[in-house]
TrEMBL record:
Organism (species): Streptacidiphilus monticola
Family of the protein in this entry: Belongs to the acyl-CoA dehydrogenase family.
Residue ranges constituting the Acyl-CoA oxidase/dehydrogenase middle domain according to the UniProt record: 135-225
Signal peptide residues on this chain, from the entry's feature table: none
Keywords for this protein: FAD, Flavoprotein, Oxidoreductase, Transit peptide
InterPro entries in the record: Acyl-CoA_Oxase/DH_mid-dom, Acyl-CoA_Oxase/DH_mid-dom_sf, AcylCo_DH-like_C, AcylCo_DH/oxidase_C, AcylCoA_DH/ox_N, AcylCoA_DH/ox_N_sf, AcylCoA_DH/oxidase_NM_dom_sf, Glutaryl-CoA_DH_mitochondrial
Domain of life, source organism: Bacteria
Domain Acyl-CoA dehydrogenase/oxidase N-terminal intervals: 18-131
Cofactor field: FAD
Domain Acyl-CoA dehydrogenase/oxidase C-terminal: 237-384
Protein name: Acyl-CoA dehydrogenase family protein
């Protein structure tokens, strides 16, 4: 007789993964269980990630930083393996996945894809090892979904560039050793590699957050930051540069959001088997089972979608519009799973003794960054109609 279905993998999705895929997943899962889960509730409640530099070095040690990139000390993992790592990181906390995502998919990817060979050699090996943390400056105080209207500018002054402006909601900003900053120039939008010890650069940390509390979030201030000519990415102009990086980060979120959802579902399922009301476990009541069934259904549909997109990325056929399908669906369903799971725990669901409210709060940010729900709806809408509704 066939073995009973595993309630944690009822569709047998693990059967679609290779031994190497599973090994990568299990390595990241074990690291999170050992180094993050015992402390994350306290870090979140305190609104800090106190050991961020130490954690970055450890993540570099297990090959998780820029893991989907080739060469320069990067692991050269597949897109599916990178996605599985993002899932496990966000099952611990969205802030942790954001640290890795901004490091690898934004800052490192930008240098790897658009940087000069000197820029790559200078920064990527140290970033892959976690010795240098990177950040990515695109969003501004008045320009989020409309990066073409950014006000940060770079002007030539002899052989140098001089940058002025502000960036907002920048993960890793105040702990970064290097910032990738996008700015308006007379030649269009261009990207600059900015060592954060350059005079005129500062990154005050943003406090009083109700979401992503176990994450370093900062403003970037550029006040006559003078850089040499070779600080600019040599061959990319316009929004093609930053948008190519955002597509990488969005792909990681397609997987990552499901990690938060899985944590919520598993917490609710286990709770329903031990919490008794009216003389029996609440998991035996029809309404609770309906909630668990719907959450499991959406989680596993999301996993199949993520895996499909990952296979396409590995084959070189994944389009940005397809990533929007994944980001829109999986984050929206993940936050609904978190909210439903909270109802199963009742009042206990708001306690940080359980991860659900922390995940729900984090997912409110994940719902917005790397493209809001509305922006991804319009991307999908344009795909379906051929008509641009952004303006």
């Amino acid at each position: 007789m066939a073995a009973p279905l595993d309630p944690r993998d009822p569709l047998g999705i693990d059967d679609l993964l290779s031994e190497e895929d599973l090994a990568v997943r299990d390595t990241v899962r074990a690291w999170c269980a050992d180094r993050v889960l015992p402390h994350i509730a306290d870090w979140y409640e305190a609104g800090e990630l106190p050991t961020v530099r130490e954690l970055a070095r450890e993540l570099g040690g297990i090959g998780a930083l820029g893991m989907h990139l080739e060469g320069y000390g990067c692991a050269g993992a597949s897109a599916v393996q990178y996605g599985l790592a993002c899932l496990e990181l966000e099952a611990a906390d969205s802030g942790l996945r954001s640290l890795v995502s901004v490091q690898g998919s934004l800052a490192m990817y930008a240098i790897h894809r658009w940087g000069s060979e000197e820029q790559k050699q200078t920064w990527l090996p140290r970033m892959a090892a976690g010795e240098v943390i990177g950040c990515f400056g695109l969003t501004e105080p008045d320009h989020g979904s409309d990066p073409a209207s950014m006000r940060t500018n770079a002007k030539r002054d002899g052989a140098d560039w001089v940058l002025n402006g502000r960036k907002m909601w920048i993960t890793n900003g105040s702990v970064a050793g290097v910032a990738v900053v996008w700015a308006q120039t007379d030649e269009g939008v261009r990207g600059f590699v900015v060592p954060t010890d350059t005079p005129g650069f500062s990154a005050p940390e943003i406090k009083h957050k109700g979401s992503l509390r176990a994450s370093v979030t900062s403003e970037l201030v550029l006040d006559n930051v003078r850089l040499p000519e070779d600080a600019v990415f040599p061959d990319v102009r316009g929004l093609k540069g930053p948008l190519s990086c955002l597509n990488q980060a969005r792909y990681g979120i397609v997987w990552g959001a499901l990690g938060a959802a899985r944590s919520c579902l598993e917490t609710a399922r286990e709770y329903s088997l031990t919490r008794e009301q009216f003389g029996r476990p609440i998991g035996g009541f029809q309404l609770t089972q309906a909630k668990l069934a719907d959450m499991s259904l959406e989680l596993n549909k999301g996993l199949l979608l993520a895996l499909h997109l990952g296979r396409r990325m590995d084959a070189g056929t994944l389009r940005p519009e397809q990533v929007s399908y994944g980001k829109l669906n999986n984050v929206r369903e993940a936050i609904e799973i978190a909210r439903t799971a909270r109802t199963i725990l009742g009042a206990n669901g708001i306690s940080f003794e359980y991860p659900i409210m922390r995940h729900a709060n984090n997912l409110e940010s994940v719902l917005t960054y790397e493209g809001t729900v509305e922006m991804h709806q319009l991307i999908v809408g344009k795909t379906l109609t051929g008509l641009d509704a952004f303006r």
